[in-house]
Amino acid sequence: MGVRAQFAPFLLALALPACSSTETGQVEPDDVPTLSFEKFTLGNGLEVILSEDHRLPLVAVNLWYHVGPANEDPGRTGFAHLFEHMMFQGSKHVAGDSHFRLLEGAGASDVNGTTDFDRTNYFQTVPADELELALWLESDRMGYLLDEVDQAKLSNQQDVVRNERRQRTENRPYGLVEEALFHQLFPEGHPYYASIIGSHADIQAASLEEVKSFFKLYYAPNNASLAIVGDIDVARTRALVEKYFGALKRGEPVPGPRVVTPPIAAERRMVVADRVELPRVYMAWHTPPIFTPGDAEAEIAGSVLGGGRSSRLYKALVYDQQVAQAVSAYQQSLTLGSVFTIVATARPGRTAEELERAIDAELARLRDSGPDQAEVDRARNTVETRIVQGLERLGGFGGVADRLNLYNHHVKAPGYLDEDVRRYRGVTPSSVKTFAASHLVPSRRALIHAVPGEPDVPAAVPRPALPTTTSGESVNADEPWRHERPAPGQVRPLQIPVPESFSLPNGLTVLVNERPGLPVVSASLVVNTGSEANPVDRPGLASFTAAMLDEGTARLGALEIADEVARLGASLSTGSTADSMQVTGGSLRRTFPALLDIMADLARHPAFPDEEIERQRASRLASLAQQRDNPGAVSNAAMYAALYGPGHPYGYTELGTDASNRAIAKADLQRFWSSHVVPSNAALVVSGAIAVAELRPLVEQAFGDWPRGAATPPSLGEPQTTGARLVLVDRSGAPQTQVRIASIGVPRATPDYESILVMNEALGGLFSSRINLNLREQHGYTYGAGSQFTFRRSAGPFYVASAVRTDVTAPAVAEVFKEIGRIREAPLTLEELALAKDSLVRSLPSQFETSGRVTSSTANTFVYGLGIDYYTKIQARLSAVSLDQVTAAAERYIVPDRLIVVAVGDTARIRGPLEKLSLGAIEVRNTDGALTPQ
């Protein structure tokens, strides 16, 4: 079909110019890896990019189609995203429910598809021996999707996508406000107007014929690029790509979007009400398209203005004036014109008008004077370090494969990385000032004040009754060999290294995972005590203490810490869980010694300044207000309270309560820190491009004279579980109900741990699990549903979670109980058992894909006393789980009579149907999880 175009491959090795100083943390030539790849084009127009990387026995398969909302017809908003869902519904040689099941059984990770304004991508990272499986699946839906598309599948995915819209837009705080912002920026009919997801009316109006036409035009090989990165042989992989994709027909030439984005000539202002406690301000401007002059300046300006705690807006609005709870500024780089956005959330008692005035003052200062060189350096260092760190991942969001496709899509050059970095090197204070003065002016913006009130939810659109029997249509001739799933190749076992370990005389444990390759290092100082040690009258104390660690030390103030971390281009965070507290950071190898010194200073010398305590207190109270706005967070809070009661540390979220946060004093914080943050109760976990011999003197210098101390062991009381079996939290008018079906589970130390993991994978852990296939794929009740055991040192919760359409709340709950009963009463099939085990065992390499993941996995072995060789044994333990053990785990640990149903939604509509299920006693709680009179 036409002339066969075969272009010669080429290799590219990146080399960047030297920079003037190595003290700023700026990326140096040695910090950027050589990224070798081969690009060629098949005769049908499919562009293929191959990159060989043998760090792990994994391969990322990443396929981009050059289509998104930018290509949609007027009146069909959300169609590109709806079509993305259709691509998972089966093709001629792949049954409709088997795409995820096959990949999960093969041990794939990062399996997904996403739609952005300008493109749609599909990706999966698979064990190297399953590369052919991924190619078979991707090529079959590219070539043979229409053979199996019918009205039933379309109607089901319309239900699913409309549930996704309810969950992400209509029932999420500020979701409708963000949609309104795009309505202000772009006129109706513009491809960006509908903010990707589209409207209920347009989603429901999509027809089967439109699906077929869209596929034929946009999902042809000549409108796609395929990146394959990882443990491959390039020559063999090239032959496999030719085998699976080479015979697929080239499509018609694809017209590019012909859209002119009208400029904003005068400020567009709007007030939007939503179910929120805190006002919020959105400002947005049209800015230069992606990879064009001005785009890099916009990203640097976003970082200077609102890129974290070292930014101007944070310092002014959050820290100094304390009018804002949070603030951010960022460039969303797009093809038809980018969008620069500032978002600021008010503190309780503050108004949107105050936020607007404060933001405008900082914008005027940037336009008039521009940033200084140090600000630009900090912003550039952060951007460049993030790019290098992203290359640790083979695929998924931000990995090597995705970046190769990103560059290929926008500039037709997969090796654009060196030019990309040079863009940021070329940014100066003067060029940022010019960008701000020409673009970030009031007369050219859209501005929205989000205020508390009743939202204007779009009117309900009924689902029409449509015929479900329709015939498919063939685009490509059948190839009989495609009917058989490809056999796996030769297994390439993961050689899991045991971390090297040493201890300081003061008792600090140090665990080191050396990872040659990319010049990045991740570290976490893990304290083996968390919110389990909170006093009964001080829930949230561990979290408050952890939050204060980076709010000032004896040497550095809070803003000085933030500026220093940004100067290094590093990341730094503190936090807590039920079982631990952490100080976690990541940086380039060269700047890691300086970052380690900061981490040590935070843990060892927190100053707990009075003024910072009050700032943090105000921030936490505002976070609690935001938590009450979030239906998912409310359902979790009510679940914890119902399961454990007010006298148990697990009865609260990590934030605690309003009352406890108001009561916590400086002495409480100092006491908790001194009682638990001691070296004998901690481990420093380091992973990345650093060896023990290099690390040991750094650790000894930073932590060697830390006094030993002795940690106070926590004492947990007994849970006081409610006697009710149905817990209701009212959210009047909500289009969805957040459901939790929960009981108290088991501790991490249970001998049945592996059996429980395997059982839960089949029940609700996988996309292809029984619960998700039932509620999402069979009934269209939800965007997604799943189950999990939360393993802690003491027994954490087991729960099923989903957000379901309001009118099907009771049927959805009934279906969950049906699946719970079924897994207890009937054993898994051998196929289900194999799928669950294989998904766990074969996906283990993904836990070692990045330094951050290795650090997190290793930290868990310390917190739960698993031993440093744990990951060398877990595969065999999981593989040995039997069918009888899985059945016994279900019978023992998921007992229907102990399950509590928590429903956060419109109680006027859901209570009656739920009562008819005869679950048991009913109680009503508020959005904090506390009991309320009925």
Tell me what you see in this structure.
It is a single chain. This protein is α+β, with helices and mostly antiparallel strands. It folds into 4 domains: 49-252, Cytochrome Bc1 Complex, Chain A, domain 1, CATH 3.30.830.10; 268-389 and 414-452, Metalloenzyme, LuxS/M16 peptidase-like (Cytochrome Bc1 Complex, Chain A, domain 1), CATH 3.30.830; 500-703, Metalloenzyme, LuxS/M16 peptidase-like (Cytochrome Bc1 Complex, Chain A, domain 1, 2-Layer Sandwich), CATH 3.30.830; 726-856 and 864-924, Cytochrome Bc1 Complex, Chain A, domain 1 (2-Layer Sandwich), CATH 3.30.830. It contains 31 helices and 23 strands. Strands 1-2-6-3-5-4 form a 6-stranded mixed beta sheet, with helices on both faces. A 6-stranded mixed beta sheet has the order 12-13-17-14-16-15, sandwiched between helices. A 6-stranded mixed beta sheet has the order 20-21-19-22-18-23, with helices on both faces. A hairpin with a 7-residue loop joins strand 20 (782-789) and strand 21 (797-805).
Brief summary:
This protein has 934 residues and is an alpha+beta fold. The protein folds into four domains: 49-252, Metalloenzyme, LuxS/M16 peptidase-like (Cytochrome Bc1 Complex, Chain A, domain 1), CATH 3.30.830.10; 268-389 and 414-452, 2-Layer Sandwich (Cytochrome Bc1 Complex, Chain A, domain 1), CATH 3.30.830; 500-703, Cytochrome Bc1 Complex, Chain A, domain 1 (2-Layer Sandwich), CATH 3.30.830; 726-856 and 864-924, Metalloenzyme, LuxS/M16 peptidase-like (Cytochrome Bc1 Complex, Chain A, domain 1), CATH 3.30.830.
